[in-house]
Amino acid sequence: MPPASRTIVVAGAGIGGLTAAIALADRGFRVVVLEQATVLEATGAGIQLSPNAMRVLIGLGAAARLDAVTVAPEAVRVRRAATGSEIVRLPVGNSELRYGAPYRVIHRGDLQAVLLALARQRPDIALVLGMRVDDYAVHRNGVTVACSGADGTSEHSGLALIGADGLWSRVRARLIGDAPPRPAYRTAWRALLPADAVEPALRAPIVDLWLGPGAHLVHYPVRGGRLINVVAIAHDREAVTGWSAPGDGAALLTRLPAHAWAPAARDLLARPEQWLRWALYDRPPLARWSRGPVTLLGDAAHPMLPFLAQGAAMAIEDAAELADALALRPGDPVAALADYETRRRRRTAAVRAGARRNDRAYHLGGPAAAVRDLGMRMLGGDRLLARHDWIYGWRPRGGDVPVPAPANATAVRP
């Protein structure tokens, strides 16, 4: 086991935190992961794992486990809400040839289970559940983290503290002290349907994305094709709390009305017996998210709206870059974390800006939507996919030079 001087403390056992722990352990560090939940539940919606994320996960030894629970979509099919007609089809099925890594879809709970299994295979990772980070103190040997839980209080020391504790990060509150997340006035509704209860067209390995005025709908198979993940996002002034507030299907249908949505879409939305919902929140980009031996990762550092399907992917990329930075400078964690932040800040800001642009484009109505649809049809699936090359073609530091973001995608104030 690495000596205590090689210990990294990670707050949060979500996707970013577990990925970081695995990557750090593989680079010779001991990792203590502190998670305030007493049980890691298989909750959440589906996730699209684009090649930039899959490349990292495969490098951590997750390929066989992911093969058992993911689906490899042939395409992302963009559809017009009012008619259900296809606008354009992005051929993501050739991602392995195009980007060197596949495109997959997975349920969030399954991804967390895969990462948890990989973490438990590594003796240098200690997972401490039911322990909330309350405070930390920086000193010449690194940082000491004060925690509390049902069984009392404890302290954990290490070279560095990584705040991977999500949108409502306690580490961020202590490190940055900025305003809390602000409502985006969008609510996401999610449900799962048994694949054998739907028609074959819905079981096909396709990511269906329906664009409508003020709302959009996405559905695709997960759990190796055994379930259909359905998510609808609509404008909503109510900022519900929590990740799994109960939802009323009838209320959802009022947000996707019959005059704007095709019968096939509304029929799908009427099928689930249980809906869960969560409010979307946003935060402006930070100029800095590292100070001394403390840094942030994923949603704690740069939360983004889900309209590029890159939130989890950015956390996974963060984890790889962070582990590489610390491995290159194990004796100088302050410099390593500053390097990590520098390498990540511009890219994550660009992806965040792209997601916000998609928010506007997805939810257009009337003539503006018709112009959008015509533009996508004229561009075609191959060229539309090429606009994502700078995202999907990313490689960790040990790989090739990443594809740079286009100029208009990076024109964001850090």
Number of extended strands: 19
**Major sheet strand order:** 5-4-13-14-15-12-17-16
**Largest sheet composition:** 8 strands, mixed
Sum up the overall morphology in one term. globular
Secondary structural class:
alpha/beta
DSSP summary: helix tally: 14
Rg calc? 21 Å
Q: Give the helix level as a range of percent.
A: 25-40%
Low-pLDDT stretches are 399-414
List keywords for this structure.
monooxygenase activity; FAD-dep_Monooxygenase_BioMet; monooxygenase; eight-stranded mixed sheet; disordered C terminus; alpha/beta; FAD/NAD-bd_sf; 14 helices; 414 residues
Structure description:
The protein has helices at residues 15-26, 51-59, 63-69, 95-99, 108-120, 170-175, 200-203, 249-255, 263-270, 311-328, 333-362, 366-379, 381-386, 389-392, and strands spanning 7-11, 30-35, 46-49, 75-80, 86-90, 104-107, 125-129, 132-139, 142-149, 152-158, 160-163, 182-194, 206-212, 215-222, 227-235, 245-247, 275-282, 290-291, 294-296. The protein is an alpha/beta fold and 414 residues long. The chain contains 14 helices and 19 strands. The model is unreliable at 399-414 (pLDDT under 50).
Quick gist of this model?
Helix content is 35%, strand content 28%. The chain is an alpha/beta fold.
Helices and strands, with pairings:
Blueprint: E1 7-11, H1 15-26, E2 30-35, E3 46-49, H2 51-59, H3 63-69, E4 75-80, E5 86-90, H4 95-99, E6 104-107, H5 108-120, E7 125-129, E8 132-139, E9 142-149, E10 152-158, E11 160-163, H6 170-175, E12 182-194, H7 200-203, E13 206-212, E14 215-222, E15 227-235, E16 245-247, H8 249-255, H9 263-270, E17 275-282, E18 290-291, E19 294-296, H10 311-328, H11 333-362, H12 366-379, H13 381-386, H14 389-392
Parallel strand pairs: 1-2, 1-11, 2-7, 4-13, 11-19
Antiparallel strand pairs: 3-6, 4-5, 8-9, 9-10, 12-15, 12-17, 13-14, 14-15, 16-17, 18-19
Helix pairs in contact: 1-5, 1-10, 2-10, 10-11
GO molecular function: FAD binding; monooxygenase activity
Keywords: FAD, Flavoprotein, Monooxygenase, Oxidoreductase
Organism: Rhodoplanes serenus
